[in-house]
Amino acid sequence: MDKEVRVRFAPSPTGGLHIGGVRTILFNYLFAKQNNGKFILRIEDTDQSRFVQGAEEYILNCLEWCGLTPDEGQGFGGNFGPYRQSERKNIYIKYAQQLVAQGHAYYAFDTPVDLENKRNAIPNFQYNQATRLQMRNSMTIPHEAVQSLINEGAPHVIRIKMPENENVYFNDLIRGDVSFDTHQVDDKVLLKADGMPTYHLAVVVDDYLMKISHVFRGEEWLPSAPVHILLWKYLGWDNDMPKWAHLPLILKPDGKGKLSKRDGERLGFPVFALDWTDPKTQEKATGYKETGFLPQALNNLLALLGWNDSTEQEIFTMQELVDKFSLERVHKGGAKFDWDKAKWFNAEWIKKLSAEELLPYVKDVLANKNINAKDDYLKTIIDLVKERCVLLPDFYAQSHFFFTEPKTYDMDALKSKWSDEKGLFFNDLISQFNQINNWDGVDLENVFKELASAKAIKVGELMLPFRVMLVGGKFGPQVFLIAEIIGKQQTLARIAKALETIKL
After folding, report:
1. Per the count of CB atoms within 10 A, which of 2, 136, 199, 300 is most buried?
2. Of these residues, 89, 118, 261, 497, which one is catalytic?
């Protein structure tokens, strides 16, 4: 490529981070790493009315959990700062004024009341080529009066002057050639009355000053593209304009519209990366992390929502994604979200990771249940039960009996296989097990089967009761292995306690 690849993720700190945003981060990250470029985090907080306390820190926490670490940006340093737009306010004014001087923008003095009156008078009112000469702006007010109003500090904004009946063309790296008729685009505000830029001006100025080479963003930003392209042109930066890629939407499971937080609440799955509680409303949204997802699984899932490598492969490490990712294989159409498939990815990653890699996640799950155990013991158990786990909390459900004896029993399962002679069998089994010095699963199984044979009871009729005695229900790995791991004392105590319970 001609110049250094520099891509950016530029969120507004207004709330939780939707998985669509995480996927945008991921695609930026993969493209940067593949091309030995830089991935930059920029905080776009020019709309102070929508600023939410704690949202910026939340975004940083999401990036950390996902393992998608920026090379530079807010919180990471770099040579193109500040990386928070509210700290760059003095930068934008001169560019807005330059556009006015060139005739590509104008001052507008319309009050909120003026605009409301127009909206009431004209259905679907837009401030554009057809209406701007009816408004209070520097095209309808004499030059001297405009200067007087500015000198007096009269509230005003600066709007782009969209050309009439022109076509704006650009090449999208995903969608190919795209064109817009400027007649369909209104005169967007570039600089607000408080001196802060709107997104439209700030994003162009910042992308230019930060030498951004490629812009990856959701397809919902396509309607803004002609405004941004014209600003690049009007400011004389045509040759430095980044290449554009508008990513497909992540759709609701039925494919009808963009996936929203409300869809997740309605259908029972998260749409945010981490838990988010709105500090104003106290409304809480569940995150993938807290639901029990591995970050590797979420990244893998999101990579394949709108992209594939043309093979049947579905499980990708981050390095494989870096190596194989290509914009040519990003789909134009939206990708339906499938919660069952999402859980499948997580289950596959749980199987894929070693006990050592899973250890910190499982320790967190068990710590929430006030269970602490030595690492080596935990790793043994992780290897035994991970094939049965879909979400991380499943590690507790599938292994709690290794740490504490059952508090309840599946009595229906027990009694369906129970008889007095089986009670006598387990009483004798306690005596037989008590004499074993080498407490090994294979030896325990041999003793168990020999005693069953001696009493003429089918081994299959005894296995379920034995399992329920040790774990409380019809679940868990190989039962003699469970007995080996929990040890002699616990095994004998659990059999004895269960026998007492069954008598009641």
Report:
1. 300
2. 261
